[in-house]
Write a structure and sequence with these properties.
The chain is an alpha+beta fold. Helix content is about 20%, strand content about 35%. The termini are far apart.
């Protein structure tokens, strides 16, 4: 370069703020990107000039806020009818692409000094010893639970304990108690098969339940329960 010459600056270039991961994901889902996305954004603005919904989406689609923005844009363009429901052209794909492990897994442990029901003479139906409320997010969930309770039988005879998950009660397990100080009885239950998954977006109850197995009064104390839920789809 000759002395005194000036260096010509390159014109400023626009940089797409989307990450490569986001752009590829959107392309695979059939969502417009680049120029096509800008055109569609302009159409959305004309259709809803007063809307506060985002008109563009940038960032990693795995981020919850970005994903919610994406659903809002698709809803504004009538690609999906309701972002809270699966359906439309991309609803199911979007849920599975970005929310496979949302809020998963969930693990809770709970213990109490006294039982929901202090005692029972029932030999058929069980009563609740402890109740845990499990809040499940979107999707379908596999849930496992285990728990125990100290049971005392008035005649030192057999007692029974079981686990309940979302009104589904497992087979009661019988053990021999004692008039004092009683016995800690354990039980567990799994709902982990595909046909037995629990629909999310709701709260469910998980319980330890008990009853007398032999005629007499069974008293309960110090129940405890642990539940593990994993999103499967």
């Amino acid at each position: 370069m000759e002395h005194g010459s000036t260096m010509r600056k390159r014109a400023a270039q626009l940089v797409n703020p989307q990450s490569v991961h986001t752009a590829v994901t959107l392309q695979l889902l059939g969502v417009p990107t680049g120029k096509d996305r800008t055109v569609a954004d302009n159409r959305a603005r004309l259709a809803e000039p007063g809307s506060d919904k985002p008109k563009t989406v940038t960032g990693n689609i795995d981020d919850g806020t970005v994903f919610n923005d994406l659903l809002n844009v698709l809803q504004a363009r009538n690609i999906i009818v309701n972002k809270a429901e699966r359906g439309g052209s991309f609803g199911g794909q979007l849920h599975n692409a970005a929310l496979v492990n949302a809020d998963s897994p969930v693990s809770l442990v709970q213990a109490e000094g006294s039982a929901d029901t202090a005692s029972t003479t029932n030999t058929g139906s069980t009563v609740s010893a402890i109740t845990m409320v499990l809040d499940l997010g979107v999707g379908k969930w596999a849930v496992s639970a285990m728990g125990s309770v100290i049971l005392t039988h008035s005649a030192g005879a057999t007692v029974a304990v079981s686990i309940e998950i979302d009104t589904d009660e497992g087979t009661a397990r019988t053990v021999t108690s004692a008039a004092a100080p009683g016995v800690r009885a354990f039980a567990h239950l799994n709902r982990v098969d595909e046909i037995n998954w629990i629909q999310g977006e709701q709260t469910i109850n998980v319980r330890v339940r008990y009853r007398s197995d032999t005629a007499g009064t069974t008293s309960a104390k110090n129940p405890q329960i642990m539940a593990l839920a994993k999103r499967m789809e």
